[in-house]
Each structure stands twice: as structure tokens, then as C-alpha cells.
Design the sequence.
């Protein structure tokens, strides 16, 4: 029998050289993603490219501030990704609220709801700063310390408790069925 | 082989059956996690691959700007409000400053007006290049998108030297601008950049705007006629492609536009191809305006109003009154309405983004009958910017 | 306050002519000229539909925005309808006032005169609690999420810092002993 754990360094080398990104541009910082991926600060030389399907992606970029409505979709997309998966947050808004520290609709501390590996400072961070963060993630993958997905699985009750406190119990079913009454045919006098 | 009725029963027991909508249609979330929409969602009711009904679902980027602006002093709001329109952040700075200038009633010096006009035009050119990049990526012509992103980087480097940041330049304040132009070398670099971009426009035509594939994909899709566009409050290039010649720079002139010579392109078809071509013509006109401004050169003088009140910014008070100011951005008519009651914080600030008119009702009506592959093309041809709707 | 009427000079004669022509057909309204290309009217709440129909027939085509402004001292909410006229080249503000109380803040809808107003009315309802009678999209979810549906955040009596503290339980730049904070 082959012991696959002997091949771990090879797997980690392969993983860090071909991280695929889920294309979800969650906030302000999404404006610096196209310059990052195109020819000036080329990101494809590291093997990274954006991919629409979460089932085939490794890295999740939370670019900027997060509102509760977006956070629901982030959690659903994050849980659709297969292990191992990494999360990187951009900017000062996911860290402590940033410019919107007293807004009723911006999440102040994202580590309570989704585990994060690396946070990049700035408002908004330059493409060179984002590359620095990506280098750090690649180092962490090689060392084996990029274990946010293990943290999520082990402390799932704590994360679930925070999410339910913010959204209310049973939020997934409510979100999925919310628009059905508005899509049905309307009666004649109500247009 | 398991019988189908058994499978249906098992699905119903576990709550996993599909709720049928009427007459064999299904619900599709064209949701925020998508490469074509920028954190904006459309709920579609589909019949096969055709759309029967669409509902726009904004609200993913809502931060409550209008309430936050009432809690911060007048000049701090510049650093906050410019995050409303992400591709063109100079536009909200300018409309807020123009409205506050009108309430106070002071005259902005000539040099500051020249600088404000140049910055607005540079923002328009970089926003049009960003739009060309988005359109190319959706049509599949990836080469033109890479070119557009690269040329936009030259303008970002110029902005960085002028104001210190690539994207969010906190530069225009009520009373003028915060810093002067760095040197004459900056003006020469701007002139070279404008000439360079102008010489590359035929390449874009060859790949995107005179391409048979673009015509096939965009002609006859998402047609708006003149009466419909006026009734729905559409402004900007979308309205000019439907046949109405309304440009704020000509109709309600502000800054240095009365002295500049430019054309306002108007096409009559109103479909997605006409909207794309209007934007291409306007990019050319904007480069021509920048050439004229550079030939005029900045007039000498102060770049800020010399007023002792500007020395103590947290206690800066504005007399009571209200004003409305609007500016032509690449998306449409961007307006701000500011009310003051004499204190050091605003009483009410309202920002009207152009996408609230064409991103919600017009989109829902244009998508009826379209195929699923036409939905991103219509969305991009309307140039929808979700943070305008949500504020 | 910015200057009211600009006396003399040909700068505002066109706007004065437009104001006079509209006021002749609608004697219940008041109007004046703010400056070049800015005019405003003041209309009582019951006649708002007739006035806007009159404006639409006289060349005021684009409805730009409906702005509610909350005046808690007068116990009223002022609604401002902002309209741009392409044929005349002027911007108009039509002002009207409605009572501020949540049960009494109702006004008929104008979405059959200007269809764009449907979206603006949904906006005003979600943030201020004004009910527009006849617009069936009042209950449709717009920008705010389910938890903020009946909160009406832009009213002047909504205390945002306490709400944020209760909802997120973390607000590290707020000092409870001060009642005015400098940012």
C-alpha cells in the first residue's frame, strides 16, 4: 500500500503553484482586480486565474467591505468549495470596519463568520501589496500553516452561532424561497 | 433501476423538490457570484433558454452613505462620498464640492477650474477604457481587454503623481483643489499619454468595433426607443443612442466647458450596438477635449479660495440653504442635492446615481424575451454600476 | 441662503417666463426663480398629481429623483420632486410637505405620469416610511435586508450608533462617556 502522506510536499508544491480564484467581486477593492490580472502586474505567471465555478476553485478573495446580504452568499459559496481552501481579505474594512465603522450595514469583524488566512492592509491596497499577500499565502501553504479550512471544520458550532445571531435562524431556506411569490403571474388589476 | 415516483417521494420527504413556477418555467439566480455582474443580482424566470420575467435585486453594496454623511464634518465627507462610484471616483467629489460652493457663494479661482476639468476628463477616459475592457471580456475578445487595461494604467500613474493614490484621490474640495499640479513635466507626460492612446484607437476598431462577431452579437438586442427612454429617466450615452441629444456639458454648462469645442454624438437605433458605438465616439471626443485643455494651459493664480475659514477644517461652517449640482459622467447624469442648516455637519446629502434609472426598471423590461447568452451583453451595454443604485 | 431672485438683467428672463406660464394654469401653487436654470415650485399635497400632469404636458420630460428631507421640528417630511426639462433647459424642484407620523405619511403615487418614479418611491418608502398609495411594489424587497425592514434608517430619530452596537456587538471607537465625538 502506498502511504500518500509521503507525497505531501509534492502536493503542497503543486497546490501553491496553481491556485484558482473564485470570481466574486465583493466590494470596492474589486476595481484593482482587473489591473492585477492583466498585463502590467501579471498574476497568471503564478498559475492563478479567475474561475466562475466554486467547485473548481481554491482561493477566495474578499475584496473590501462586506454587507450582511453579501455575507450570506459568501458563506454559501465558501461551503461549496472542496478542501483545501484558502481565504484572503483585502483592505481595512474586513478587519475592523474601516471607513464604515459606524454603518449599520457593514460587517465589522469578518473573522467571526468566515476563517481568514491573510489580511492585506490598505484602502485600497495596491496591486503590489496584493502580490505580497499572495506570496505570503504561498509560503504558508508550503509550511503547512494555511489551515483555515481545518479551523472552520473544528469550530463549526462557534461560526454557526455567530452567523445565526446575525441573520436569524433558518436563513438559508428563507433566502432560497424569498422571490418565488414575486415571480408568479400577477392578477389583472395589480400592475 | 429505481422508479421515478420513488425518487420523487424521497426528494419530497427530505425537502429537496423543486417548486414549480407556472407553466413549465424555472427560477434562475443570475447572482452576485458571476463574472459579468459586479455584485448585483437578477432573478430570472426562464422558459428553456429564454427569459420570461426578470427582477433586479440590488442591495449587496449598501453602506448607508446618506446617513453617514450627516455625522461627519463637511470636508471629511469628501473622503467618504467618493466611494459611491467606484470606476470614476472623481465625479462624486466634484458634484459635492460644486453644490457646497453654490450654497456658500464664493468664486472658485480659474486655475482650480482648469485642474478640475482636466481631472474629470481624465477620469472619463479611464472609465471608458475600463468599459472597453469589460465589454471585450464578455464578448470573448480577450486581447482588446488586455490592451485597454494596460493603457488605463498609464492614466493611473499620472493620477498617482498628482494626488497620491491610484484610485481614490481625495483631491477636489469645496473651494478648489488640495494641491497644485506637480510640475511642467506632468503636463508633458499627460500630452504624450493622450497622443499615445489616440494612436491606438484604430487597433480597437479593428478588433472590437468593426468586427463581424460584435455586430452579430449586439445588433438588434435590447432595443429602447426615444419615448420609452425619456419616460424611464434614462440619461447619458444610453439616451443619446436612442436619439435624444442631452448632454449636461452642453445643456447646463459648468467649469470650463462653455469655452471648449466638442461634438455630442447621437445615434437613433437604440439597440446594444448603438450604445457601444456612442461610447466609442465619445472616447475620441474626450481625447480631443484633453488636447484643447493642454493647449490652453493652466492659468496662473491660486488653486484654492483664500478664505480664513479654510484654516480650521473641523469647525468649518456653511450658511443655511440648499443646492443641486450635476455632472456628466460616463454612466449618465450624476447629481447631488445638499441641504445645510448652518452647522458644521451637513443636514441632508442625497446622491443620485444614473444607474438607478437604467439598472432596475429598464433592465427588467429589456430582458424579456432575451436568450441567456444575451443577458451579460445587455447588462454591459447599459453600463450598469451597482454602487450607484445602492449608495 | 443663496440669493433668491436675481433682479434685472436678461440672465433669468427665460426662466421667469416659464414660471409665469405655469403659475397661470395652476393658481394653487407658488413659484420663483433661484438662479439661471434653476426654478422651484411649492404645491400643497392634495394637488400634486394635477401639478405634475401639467408639467409633463408642458415639456418637463425627465424625472431625476424624489428626495425626502426630514424636519422633526415642524413635524413634517418635505418631498422634493426633481425634474429636468430638455426642451427648456431648466431644472425644477417641486416641493410638498406631508405629516411625519408613520401612520399619516401617505401620498398618492405618480408612477402613471412618470414611470421612473416607481423606483424612487420604493427608495423613499424603505428609508423613510412614506407610503405611496397605488404603487403595488411597496412591499417588494428593495435594498434593505429582512432585519432592517421596519427600522427606517434615514429618519432623524434613528440612533445609529446604539443600533450598530446592538447588532454587531463591537464598536471600538465609541466612547460612551462622551456625547459628542470628534472624528
Sequence:
Amino acid at each position: 500500500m502506498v502511504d500518500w502522506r509521503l507525497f505531501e510536499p509534492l502536493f503542497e508544491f503543486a497546490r501553491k503553484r496553481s491556485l484558482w480564484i473564485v470570481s466574486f467581486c465583493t466590494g470596492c477593492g474589486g476595481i484593482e482586480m482587473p489591473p492585477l490580472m492583466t498585463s502590467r502586474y501579471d498574476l497568471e505567471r503564478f498559475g492563478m486565474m479567475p474561475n466562475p465555478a466554486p467547485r473548481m476553485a481554491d482561493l477566495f478573495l474578499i475584496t473590501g467591505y462586506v454587507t450582511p446580504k453579501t455575507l450570506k452568499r459568501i458563506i454559501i459559496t465558501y461551503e461549496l468549495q472542496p478542501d483545501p481552501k484558502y481565504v484572503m481579505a483585502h483592505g481595512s474594512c474586513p478587519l475592523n470596519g474601516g471607513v464604515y465603522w459606524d454603518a449599520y450595514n457593514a460587517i465589522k469583524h469578518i473573522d467571526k463568520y468566515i476563517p481568514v488566512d491573510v489580511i492585506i492592509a490598505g484602502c485600497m491596497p495596491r496591486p503590489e501589496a496584493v502580490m505580497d499577500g499572495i506570496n505570503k499565502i504561498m509560503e504558508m501553504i508550503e509550511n503547512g500553516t494555511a489551515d483555515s479550512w481545518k479551523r472552520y471544520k473544528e469550530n463549526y458550532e462557534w461560526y454557526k452561532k455567530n452567523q445565526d445571531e446575525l441573520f436569524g435562524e433558518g436563513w438559508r431556506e428563507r433566502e432560497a424561497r424569498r422571490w418565488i411569490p414575486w415571480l408568479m403571474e400577477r392578477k389583472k388589476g395589480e400592475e | 433501476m429505481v422508479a421515478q415516483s420513488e425518487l420523487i417521494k424521497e426528494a419530497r420527504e427530505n425537502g429537496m423538490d423543486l417548486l414549480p413556477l407556472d407553466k413549465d418555467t424555472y427560477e434562475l439566480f443570475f447572482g452576485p457570484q458571476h463574472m459579468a455582474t459586479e455584485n448585483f443580482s437578477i432573478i430570472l424566470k426562464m422558459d428553456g433558454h429564454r427569459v420570461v420575467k426578470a427582477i433586479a435585486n440590488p442591495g449587496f453594496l449598501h453602506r448607508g452613505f446618506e446617513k453617514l454623511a450627516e455625522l461627519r464634518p463637511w470636508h471629511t465627507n469628501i473622503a467618504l462620498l467618493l466611494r459611491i462610484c467606484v470606476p470614476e471616483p472623481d465625479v462624486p467629489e466634484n458634484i459635492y464640492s460644486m453644490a457646497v460652493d453654490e450654497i456658500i457663494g464664493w468664486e472658485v479661482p480659474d486655475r482650480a477650474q482648469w485642474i478640475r476639468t482636466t481631472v474629470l476628463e481624465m477620469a472619463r477616459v479611464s472609465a471608458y477604457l475600463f468599459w472597453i475592457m469589460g465589454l471585450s471580456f464578455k464578448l470573448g475578445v480577450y486581447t482588446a481587454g488586455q490592451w485597454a487595461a494596460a493603457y488605463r494604467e498609464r492614466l493611473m500613474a499620472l493620477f498617482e503623481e498628482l494626488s497620491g493614490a491610484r484610485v481614490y484621490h481625495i483631491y477636489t474640495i469645496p473651494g478648489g483643489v488640495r494641491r497644485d499640479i506637480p510640475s511642467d513635466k506632468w503636463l508633458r507626460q499627460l500630452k504624450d499619454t493622450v497622443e499615445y492612446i489616440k494612436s491606438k484607437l484604430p487597433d480597437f476598431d479593428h478588433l472590437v468595433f468593426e468586427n463581424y462577431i460584435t455586430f452579430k452579437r449586439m445588433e438588434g438586442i435590447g432595443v429602447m426607443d426615444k419615448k420609452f427612454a425619456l419616460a424611464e429617466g434614462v440619461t447619458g450615452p444610453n439616451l443619446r443612442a436612442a436619439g435624444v441629444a442631452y448632454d449636461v456639458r452642453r445643456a447646463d454648462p459648468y467649469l470650463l466647458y462653455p469655452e471648449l469645442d466638442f461634438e455630442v454624438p447621437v445615434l437613433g437605433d437604440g439597440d446594444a450596438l448603438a450604445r457601444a458605438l456612442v461610447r466609442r465616439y465619445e472616447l475620441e471626443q474626450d481625447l480631443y477635449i484633453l488636447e484643447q485643455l493642454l493647449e490652453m494651459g493652466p492659468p496662473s493664480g491660486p488653486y484654492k479660495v483664500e478664505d480664513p475659514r479654510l484654516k480650521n477644517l473641523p469647525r468649518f461652517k456653511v450658511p443655511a440653504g440648499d443646492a443641486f449640482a450635476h455632472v456628466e459622467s460616463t454612466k449618465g447624469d450624476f447629481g447631488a442635492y445638499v441641504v445645510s442648516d448652518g452647522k458644521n455637519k451637513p443636514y441632508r446629502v442625497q446622491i443620485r446615481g444614473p444607474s438607478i434609472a437604467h439598472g432596475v426598471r429598464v433592465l427588467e423590461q429589456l430582458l424579456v424575451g432575451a436568450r441567456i447568452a444575451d443577458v451579460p451583453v445587455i447588462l454591459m451595454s447599459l453600463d450598469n454600476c451597482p454602487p450607484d443604485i445602492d449608495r | 441662503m443663496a440669493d433668491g431672485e436675481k433682479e434685472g438683467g436678461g440672465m433669468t428672463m427665460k426662466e421667469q417666463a416659464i414660471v409665469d406660464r405655469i403659475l397661470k394654469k395652476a393658481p394653487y401653487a407658488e413659484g420663483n426663480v433661484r438662479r439661471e436654470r434653476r426654478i422651484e415650485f411649492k404645491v400643497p399635497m392634495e394637488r400634486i398629481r394635477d401639478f405634475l400632469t401639467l408639467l409633463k404636458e408642458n415639456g418637463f420630460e425627465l424625472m431625476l429623483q424624489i428626495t425626502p428631507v426630514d424636519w422633526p421640528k415642524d413635524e413634517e417630511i418635505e418631498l422634493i420632486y426633481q425634474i429636468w426639462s430638455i426642451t427648456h433647459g431648466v431644472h425644477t424642484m417641486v416641493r410638498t410637505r406631508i405629516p411625519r407620523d408613520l401612520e399619516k405619511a401617505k401620498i398618492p403615487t405618480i408612477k402613471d405620469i412618470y414611470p421612473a418614479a416607481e423606483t424612487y418611491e420604493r427608495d423613499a418608502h424603505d428609508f423613510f416610511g412614506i407610503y405611496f398609495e397605488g404603487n403595488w411594489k411597496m412591499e417588494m424587497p428593495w435594498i434593505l435586508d429582512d432585519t432592517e425592514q421596519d427600522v427606517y434608517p434615514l429618519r432623524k430619530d434613528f440612533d445609529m450608533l446604539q443600533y450598530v452596537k446592538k447588532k454587531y456587538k463591537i464598536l471600538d471607537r465609541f466612547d460612551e462617556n462622551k456625547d459628542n465625538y470628534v472624528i
Notes: Chain B has one domain: 74-390. The interface with chain A takes residues 19, 21-22, 27, 31-35, 38-39, 43, 45, 53, 55, 57, 59-64, 67-68, 71, 79-80, 83, 86-87, 130, 133, 145-146, 149-150, 152-153, 156, 166-168 of chain B (CB under 8 Å). The first helix of chain B runs from residue 4 to 13.
